[in-house]
Predict the 3D structure of the following.
Amino acid sequence: MSGADDVRARSGEALTLTWPQGDIALVTMVREREMNTLSLELIDELGEALTASVAGGARALIVTGQGRAFCAGAHLRYFTEGDPRIGGGSFALRDRYLQRIAAVFDRIETLPIPVIAAINGFALGGGCEMSLACDFRLVADHAKIGVPEVRIGALAGAGGVQKLHRLVGRGKALEWILLGSHVTAAEALAHGLVTAIRPAADLMPAAMELAGRFRLLGPRAVAQSKMAVRMCGDADLGTARNIGLEALAMLIGTPEWQEGMTAFMEKREPRFPPLSEGDQPSGSPTRGDPKD
């Protein structure tokens, strides 16, 4: 690891942030004995790692787990035993725990770089919801994924219900959610829930190969495209078109745009400038007409 990588690398109680290929960031959840459940420490360290990945110039981020689980969901001891940092009662759990989970998942979804979930094992409940916030889901062939909260009298409140519906359709989402299914990798792929299946030994090489492909692409164009896809999710066609036009207008004339056009005319690979900390996609989570 180079000196620059040493500065960017982080090791916490719940996860590590490493840079295996310079501009590719890798978050590994390391609470193996607790199946990488969503402790307060993990939530906070994940938020810090997201910030550090963008600030460190990552072109893509991979998220994975250590041991048998990618992430097995909520830390149920907070519900059964309590925690003084959260307090008691359903509203305290909602506001001081569940909302924190949802907020960091929202950050994953709105990050200006591609995020790849390398699902090495169980991705259940909040672990499934974390993967749904990512842009790509590569899954080991033995892994299981799903939102089985109904088995314990709960439901997937951090995006699982809505995102499963959008990804696999109402009928299959209802089946998996209401039955609390542990979905196999093959079934998840068949219904468009995951991007690809790999043998366990090939999962991280496949994730690294996918992440490396973003080195060839304009990072601002990738960020704007990701934002436009997110905002167009349930928009009518006219609004979706305007969102795309606004995103394109934000790229025209930029150094990245000029380098891409020049490289195309000169028949060479472009040399895109990296994202800076101030490079965030235009627009907001609310849809609207393009600005004048």
